[in-house]
Amino acid sequence: MTRAEFIARLRSGLVGLPTATATDIVADYETHFADGLAAGRTEAEVAAALGDPGRLARELKAEAGIQRWRQEKNPSAAAAAVFAVLGLGAVDILILLPILMGVVGTLFGFFIAAIALFISGGGVMVAGPFAGFPGGPFAAILMGLGLMAGAVFIGALLTIVTIWLVNGIVWFARLHYRLLKPALEPQSDAQSDATSTGGSL
Q1: Residue at 195 is within a domain
Q2: For a designed S-S bond to 144, which of 14, 46, 124, 180 qualifies (C-beta 3.0 to 4.6 A apart)?
Q3: 83 is a domain residue
Q4: DSSP 76-132
């Protein structure tokens, strides 16, 4: 594979990443080729050492998704990280996806229940004192506050479980798939070549 073919396939695979990030990555791999050629390698040898550019792009996108999740910790970042990891093929999607959909569906149901409980608590607290609530207005206010507090607790607990779930998927993928391995190997090869060249001089 030539340098131009490798870079074109890498650039195509990085579609979806921020433009600046993709440009930096492509520039890094242009440097790999320049260093390899300066060390006496052919373009085909450098491309072979770097690995498949399509797979490399998927790894880089997965790594970017994981980094975004670690920084932002929001539903959008979680979805991006999970789908990026699934896209690697590190986790068997046919086995994991049905389980994951069931877990996500259950968590979503509990989130909806927590929201409904919170709204109900607010309704009891506001309307209870005027609707002849058993125990009087003060009991209605306390009951409403109790329901709202319970809803907040459930929501916080579900958030923690969701974070654990995403972190677990990322951990499992890292355990079974060494991210960015092709990107790291050429640097070691280049250092070995430089050492052997320096030793032979």
Answers
A1: yes
A2: 124
A3: no
A4: HHHHHHHHHHHHHTSS-HHHHHHHHHHHHHHHHHHHHHHHHHHHHHHHHHHHGGGTT
